[in-house]
Design goal:
Elements (H helix, E strand, L loop, with lengths): L6 H5 L2 H23 L19 E12 L4 H11 L14 H10 L5 E9 L9 E4 L5 E11 L3 E10 L1 H12 L5 E3 L7 E3 L1 H27 L3 H4 L6 E7 L14 H13 L8 E5 L2 E7 L15 E7 H8 L11 H10 L3 H31 L4 H30 L10 E5 L1 H10 L7 E2 H64 L6 H5 L2
Parallel strand pairs: 2-3, 8-11
Antiparallel strand pairs: 1-5, 1-8, 2-4, 4-5, 6-7, 9-10, 9-12, 10-11, 12-13
Helix pairs in contact: 5-6, 11-12, 11-14, 12-14
């Protein structure tokens, strides 16, 4: 600091001064790290106080992969390679996955089917048609369900049942007293975390570790659209709390400090209580559908499409009734996962379609931005690559728009169609009641998802049409240039052939009457 200030700053070369400043900036987090230890433990701005009597359980994880027409060959290869059809007769299935898939894609088959039940070797879990195989230690079983959307889109949802250790791993991190620490990201300066942000990072990292395990497994076993574009799969997890019910209004006499501490405790889990309205559905009572976390407020969660269902376990069971969970086993966490999350399947697939549209928009932007550079020199190889990418995108968009629209408008329904509404909860509900506002005025979330998809499809299809027109023009110009180059090459070949012919005539016969003999003395 002393060397880069005052008169010393004026006499130093700019390059040396810049090096001093980089060094100082690199060392600042170390100073922050030392100061973070001086904050008192009861300061809510620099520490997170988790309720000792409350605990959280990760009751299940669901991840989805999509297979539009371009990814159908990969799905067929995965079915053949994994050998999941070997046990299907034991479960009463009359057709294999490949045959069932072919019927569904032709529009004459079922709308959904169980693709496979996988059980980890050494696990005490049992499934009638289960296949004992190697699974990550965090998972006891993986259930694969295929859902057909129209004729051209197949979705596969992987349901991961966690081991007891994995289910409680987030709770262990939640109740651990985390001290300040340093993180060293590659290519960046160190980051200093105090007890407050350090708890956020550690607890969310424990949750993300389970998500990454599930996404990695699905990526390896069933590569599809998201794997092809190197994007994380849309994912949903179920988190059940022992004590805190986020759907209940806060007491009128609650202190601001208590409210903020509670929000920080939930924020450490990656759950947001800052929204004035939360997503609730009558079919999934007392459970909140949490939106994907914002990367700035949830540092370890990143920008992956991660949804959550969360609430108080006892409140959910009470809302369902005494007999609602009968026949689902003795574990209430797994019973709730079986009983309620099955109702999320169709909506979950539609949320994944929204992610597909976002990825398609980025892919279309990439094609557009690279078109001028690739076509500027009219290279046939670049043109073929761009045409292949655009053809794949066009085929997928044309098929998906029709299928997704028909899926939303279908006249049949089952347990996969809960309607979520933005509903005031917690302190927002109490304030609304105090102000005398109409609490029943709610905005439907499903309708907003559908409307946004219609807009995205319209925008992408219009842009796709323009890109194809431009590509056709460029292809014509490229063909003209190629014809010119081919004609010029043919001319040079003709000249070379003439030269060879003349040379042949000259050396064919050497004598007094030959042309070569006449030319030579």
């Amino acid at each position: 600091m002393w060397l880069s200030s005052g008169w010393r700053r004026r006499i130093q070369p700019a390059r040396l001064l810049s090096a001093w400043n980089r060094g100082i900036n690199y060392l600042i987090p170390f100073n922050e790290h030392d100061r973070n230890f001086t904050w008192p433990l009861d300061n809510w701005m620099h520490s997170v106080r988790v309720p000792n009597n409350d605990h959280v359980n990760v009751a299940g994880i669901w991840a989805v992969e999509l297979f539009p027409p371009a990814d159908l060959p990969a799905l067929r290869r995965s079915i053949a390679r994994n050998g999941w059809d070997r046990q299907r007769p034991l479960g009463g299935a009359d057709a294999g996955n490949r045959e069932t898939l072919a019927r569904a894609r032709s529009g004459t088959g079922t709308t959904w089917w169980r693709m496979a039940s996988l059980v980890r070797k050494g696990s005490t879990w049992f499934a009638l048609d289960g296949i004992r195989t190697d699974l990550p230690s965090a998972f006891e079983t993986v259930q694969l369900r295929a859902i057909q959307v129209g004729d051209g889109l197949t979705a596969v949802i992987a349901e991961f049942h966690l081991s007891d250790t994995a289910s409680n791993s987030v709770d262990v991190a939640w109740h651990t007293k985390h001290e300040p620490f340093m993180r060293f990201p590659r290519g960046r300066r160190p980051i200093s975390y105090d007890r407050h942000w350090g708890t956020f990072w550690k607890v969310q990292s424990a949750r993300v570790a389970l998500h990454e395990e599930a996404r990695t497994w699905l990526m390896d076993r069933l590569p599809g659209f998201f794997r092809r574009h190197r994007e994380p799969h849309p994912l949903l997890d179920l988190l059940l709390l022992d004590k805190f019910d986020p759907t209940r209004a806060e007491p009128a006499n609650i202190s601001r400090d208590t409210s903020l501490r509670r929000r920080d405790a939930m924020r450490a889990l990656g759950l947001d209580l800052f929204y004035p309205d939360q997503l609730l559905a009558d079919d999934l009572p007392k459970l909140i559908l949490g939106l994907p976390p914002r990367a700035g407020s949830y540092p370890a969660m990143g920008e992956a499409s991660t949804w959550s269902l969360w609430g108080k376990r006892d409140a959910v069971m009470k809302a369902l009734g005494d007999d609602a969970l009968a026949g689902y086993g003795g574990d209430p966490n797994r019973a709730i996962a079986h009983r309620l999350v099955d109702r999320m399947y169709n909506l979950f697939v539609m949320l994944a379609v929204s992610d597909l549209l976002s990825v398609s928009a980025r892919e279309q932007a990439r094609i557009r931005d690279e078109a001028a550079n690739k076509h500027g020199k009219f290279k046939p190889k670049a043109l073929r690559s761009l045409r292949r990418s655009l053809l794949t995108l066009s085929l997928d968009l044309t098929t998906l728009r029709r299928d997704v629209r028909a899926f939303w408008e279908r006249d049949w329904s089952w347990d996969g169609d809960p309607k979520f509404f933005f509903t005031p909860v917690g302190g927002s509900r109490r304030r609304n009641r105090k102000a005398g506002s109409d609490e029943e005025t709610r905005t439907e979330f499903n309708a907003s998802v559908r409307a946004r998809q219609e807009r995205d499809f319209a925008r992408l299809v219009d842009s796709d049409r323009d890109l194809r027109d431009i590509l056709s023009t460029v292809a014509s110009l490229g063909a003209s240039v190629d014809s010119f180059r081919l004609g010029r090459s043919a001319l040079w070949v003709a000249v070379a052939s003439l030269a060879v012919a003349i040379g042949t005539m000259l050396v064919a016969e050497v004598g007094p009457t030959s042309l070569l003999g006449w030319l030579l003395p």
